[in-house]
Amino acid sequence: MALELIIGPAHAGKIAALYERYLAELAAGRTAALVVPDQTAKAVTERELLARATGVVGADVVTFDTLFERIARATGDRRTVLHGAARQVVLRRALPDAPATLAARFDRLGSALLGPDDVRAAGDASLAESYALWWSALDEQQFVDRARLRIEAIAALRRDVAAWPAGEALFAQGFDDLSLAQETLLTLIAQRARAVVSLPYEAGRSPFAVLTPVVGRLADLAGSGGIVELPAGAFDRDPGLAALERRLGEAEPDRRAERPSLAGIATAEVEGERGEAEVVVGCVAEALRSGIVGQRIAIIGPRGAADRTRLVRQLREAGIEAVGKDQRALVKTPFGRALNALLSLAWAPEPTDSDRLTWLRSAWSGAPAHLVERSERPMRRSLDTLENAIEKAGEPLLRALALPPGSRGGETAAGEVAAAVRGMVQRAHGDRAPVATAMVREDVAVAAAVLSYLQTVDGVKPAPSRSEVRELLAELTISMRQTRADAICILDPRDARTIDVDVAIVLGLEEPMFGVGTSAAQDPLVEAPDQNEVARHLVYSAVTRPRRRLVLVRRVSDDEGSPLAATAIWEDLMIAAGEPPPTYRRRFSDAVLPLLEAPTVRERARSIAYLAATDRPEALRLAGVAGVSGAIRRAVAAPRRNTRLVDPRVVDVLRAREMFGVTEIDRFGDCSQIWFIERRLRPNVIDQPIDNRLRVGTLAHTVLGRFYKEVPALLQTTVIGPDDADRAMVEMVRIVDEEMIKLQPIVAGDPLTLELLGWGLRRDLARLIQQAARNAAPLVPTEFEVAFGGRGAQPGRKEGLNVGPAHVSGKIDRIDADPAFTARAMVVDYKTSTISTGAQIMRDGKLQIPLYLLALREVLGREPVGGLLVSIRKGHVRGIVDVDELDVLPANISREDRLSHDEFEAALEAARSEAAARVLRIRDGDVRHDPQTQMLCERFCDYRGICRVEK
Ligand code: SF4
């Protein structure tokens, strides 16, 4: 007997060839098993076999685990096979301190045919000890788990001829990641019976590199006569998709196949999860409109639907049912939370109010929602106890609190949970067969998952206690897969390997490894294939699934706006597709779709709201048609709404504040809405270029700080005068270069941007330093980044500046002090934005410099002589100075900024009063549309789209 190996690329007809041989084997009256990866594939395969023959007798479609169990039974093994909850309980009893991942690790060791002795020989004594303990615990109770069964079945097959039914053939399909146990089983069967295996493989092509070792071993066994190599077939596929398959991963794709026509291939570059969801919903809607049914459309991406809640929600909002292998922890589902609460009511000696309320609020208690709310309301205001409230509500709530029969006082804890679960479903949906709504289907699926999980503990002695059962429920993960036949599937690439669809939308192509290599399935003791090769093979499988249309989707930035570079996998796909331009682009800024293309209610409302800015009557008419009148009317009326903050939770926080930042108070003076947006709403900045103003400002601050700390010492001078300017410039350039090296390019084009940024910085700082040298003053820079107020300040400065109702904190960029040890000092603040003149500081209520000067005097103990703002970009120097102190100040101070001593002191006190007034307004939530100037509002403010000022 020998092995027959059927290989070929995707769509070569391998499965058809395998089914043909399998049906012929059955037709000849011989027995044969057909192995498939899992239960889902089993159902699909059985349907496929029936579709190919008028009748099938003796078909035996199984998984590998079933085969291992059969082999054990054939050799007289009668032990109970432990799995699911039962295995968890026995394992925890045997190894109470073991980590939760140990069960999965034993599983991997079993698949790699490694027993405790092998693990010890491999050098992991502690794991070997736990592993041996686990096996003895199994032996004590006459149990075996599936992992151990694999090892023992292979051993039985090697030594006992009766382990496999004489002459029974074995066929295998759908495995491109055979474990060692599975591969060994195939080779051992092939030595005594017919074995036929189909594998996706084409020699020399990189997408199949991961399979080269296993194909090599199986090919040796098959011999040249046993290898059937099928060529790529068309199989009614779009010619562009067929060409893409031929070209993918090829060093010279044009020699392998012509550039594909792009009729069947689309590419999408999207920003963030929202962009991805919108493009995908649009593509699915387009496919459905073209007449393709839901089952023939698949969305394939790493982790399936697990990380894509937004996509699933938007598909549902668009009226498109989507199903995915959605694994969720039971305790995180509403059903799980309600079950937990019910078990507390049944088992806890004194159930808490929170448990009672969780249960009553749930849909499975049968309590009328309005009565629960009415009972809860006085409790929230501490006016009544829940006990009294329930009593007042009477019969309906008392009935809901009655425990389902059997949920307390049952024979076993698992039995009590089963009774509770049945009671929940019955209360929510009644005794008779309910109408199969989505909610009923979901409830039944969750209830069935819990019951079948707990059923596995039936044979465990002693029966699991209540606390053990609770632990099991806390760990239970259930599949939320729904059963609507016309739903779109959202699949992980591993689950999509054998599907056949018309349209496939492949997501996650921005992930360098396409989701591979992140799982805990790596084990140092188990040889694993190269993860890069696994990823490339999965990408190949995913893009070769559709017959009509393939959409390749890549996120070009994450949800924070950080760019995501194109991966090697994406570049390979683009080369194979002939470098097409993106068919779809979706940026963060593309907030509005054309109304006719908006697939969901939310997007239609957004489009209509956009129209309302220019054509209000038409927008209100369309809103009526789209059923979003309320939302649009509210949006249209928004500019007229009161802007004062009234939510007690917000106002309470503001009232309790003791410390306010200088820049915050200053910003409040520009416009209190700006303060609200920047300090309370805090919208995230996206698409931030590497040379943005903030980064330039930070860099300039760092360079200037270092310059004034390092260079005077290097030049052995306290004041850098005109004679030192040239040497000082050399040092400044050095510091800029050292700081620039720390900036990493993020996207293509950044190296050039960074070079320009460095060049601009050297130019601006050179101008500043030359100016400072020309106008050298007796006061010299002595302190930098001086904090006052708050935890970051030095002891003695933490209280900050007292302005009356509160204290103020801040950080002064630079303090220039008198080297002659008088108390006189000046503050300097660097700006990358426009700076205010002395007149503007006093007229427009710009508080930063006056408050810094007050802090200089009252917190830092120096006598202020002036405060200057220095524009890094333009080299301008403005501010306010005391004209009586000009002898220690720089020479280039504008005449307009020189104040008499009395004016100077009055400016400082006026700033204190204004700061106090603003603090009181902030504490009061007094937010208005009150821009300092109309020009700020109309031309310069970034928040016009947010603050709802009437336009
Ligand atoms: S747009 Fe005008 S009102 Fe609105 S935040 Fe800006 S300055 Fe204030």
What's a concise summary of this model?
The chain has 951 residues and is of the alpha/beta class. The protein is built from 38 helices and 25 strands.
Q: Top keywords for this entry?
A:
951 residues, alpha/beta, Rossmann fold, 5 domains, 8-stranded mixed β-sheet, 7-stranded parallel β-sheet, 47% helix, binds iron/sulfur cluster
Would you mind describing this structure in some detail?
Strands 18, 19, 20, 21, 22, 23, 24 and 25 form an eight-stranded mixed β-sheet that branches. Strands 11-14-10-15-16-9-17 form a seven-stranded parallel β-sheet, with helices on one face. The longest helix has 25 residues, at 750-774. Helix content is 47%, strand content 13%. It has five domains: 3-75 and 160-229, P-loop containing nucleotide triphosphate hydrolases (Rossmann fold, 3-Layer(aba) Sandwich), CATH 3.40.50; 241-247 and 264-326 and 485-516 and 529-586, P-loop containing nucleotide triphosphate hydrolases (Rossmann fold, 3-Layer(aba) Sandwich); 329-478; 595-640, no CATH class; 693-923, Lambda Exonuclease, Chain A (Alpha-Beta Complex), CATH 3.90.320. Residues 671, 673-674, 929, 931, 936-937, 941, 943-944, 947, 949 line the site of iron/sulfur cluster.
